[in-house]
Design goal:
Jelly Rolls; Arc Repressor Mutant, subunit A; alpha+beta; 2 domains; 20% strand; globular; 9 helices; disordered N terminus
Length: 232
C-alpha cells in the first residue's frame, strides 16, 4: 500500500467496527452544535484555549503562522476529527489557527466537560485515544515527508490523501475546497511552484485537465518512481 494511503488506513478495520455513532451522539449531547460557513475563522493562534471541537461534517484547516508571517498548514480535518485538544494538556492559548474551508458542522465541547467524559465514559475515551494515535501516526509521516522527499513527491502524496478524504466525504468535495496556496502551505513550497507541478501532472494525466480538480490513481506512480530511484 502506498505511504499516502497507509496513514489513512491505520487500524481502519478495527476503527470501522467501533460503535462510533453512539459515541458521536454522546459528544453531541455534551457540547454545542455550531454551523460554520466556508472561510470562517473558528479560532485564532494565541487566543484563549478552553474548548475542544469535533467535526461532524465539512473541512477544517489547522495552520500556524511564524512571527515573520510565514504560514504552514498543519492538518486538513474532515468529518470524524477532533481539534483544539491541546487545551486538555494545560495549554491556555491556541498554538494554531482553525478555519473552515467548506461549510462545516462542529460540536464545541468545554474543556472541563471533555475531561469529565474522558474520565467517566470508556467508549468516548477509547474513541478519542484511537483517533489521536491515528493522527500522531499521520503527523510523523508528514514530518518524514517534509524532511526527505522532493516537492513533487510531497504534492503527489498530499493530493492522494485529499482524494481519499473525498472518497469518504458524505457531502462537499474536499479537493474543490483546497486552492493552490493551501497546497503550497501543506507541502512547504510556493504557489508558483505548485502551479508548475500541477501543470506537469495534468500533462501526464495524473489530475484532471479541466473543471474541478480530480486525482487519478495513476498519481501514485510519482511515489513509486521516487522510491525506485532511491533504491537503485
Amino acid at each position: 500500500m502506498p505511504s499516502a494511503a497507509r496513514a489513512q488506513s491505520v487500524s481502519k478495520s478495527a476503527w470501522a467496527q467501533f460503535p462510533a455513532s453512539s459515541v458521536v451522539a454522546r459528544l453531541a449531547s455534551a457540547g454545542d452544535a455550531v454551523d460554520v460557513e466556508r472561510n470562517t475563522l473558528i479560532y485564532r493562534q494565541a487566543h484563549r484555549a478552553d474548548r475542544v471541537f469535533y467535526v461532524e461534517a465539512g473541512l477544517v484547516k489547522i495552520d500556524n503562522a511564524s512571527p515573520e508571517g510565514r504560514h504552514a498548514v498543519i492538518a486538513l480535518l474532515g468529518a470524524g476529527a477532533f481539534f483544539g485538544e491541546s487545551c486538555l494538556a494545560g495549554y491556555g492559548a491556541r498554538k494554531t489557527s482553525a478555519r473552515a474551508l467548506a461549510d462545516s458542522r462542529l460540536v464545541s465541547i468545554r474543556k472541563s466537560t471533555m475531561r469529565g467524559l474522558l474520565r467517566s465514559d470508556f467508549d468516548v475515551s477509547r474513541y478519542f485515544t484511537e483517533y489521536m494515535i491515528r493522527r500522531l501516526a499521520r503527523a510523523e509521516e508528514d514530518l518524514i515527508d517534509l524532511r526527505v522527499n522532493s516537492v513533487e513527491r510531497r504534492l503527489a502524496r498530499a493530493l492522494l490523501v485529499l482524494a481519499s478524504m473525498d472518497e469518504e466525504a458524505r457531502s462537499q468535495p474536499v479537493l474543490a475546497a483546497v486552492n493552490q496556496q493551501t497546497l503550497a502551505e501543506i507541502v512547504g513550497s510556493t504557489r508558483p511552484r505548485i502551479n508548475l507541478l500541477l501543470s506537469k501532472f495534468r500533462r501526464r494525466g495524473y489530475v484532471s485537465g479541466k473543471g474541478p480538480l480530480k486525482v487519478s490513481s495513476s498519481l501514485v506512480n510519482v511515489l513509486l518512481r521516487d522510491k525506485a530511484v532511491r533504491g537503485a
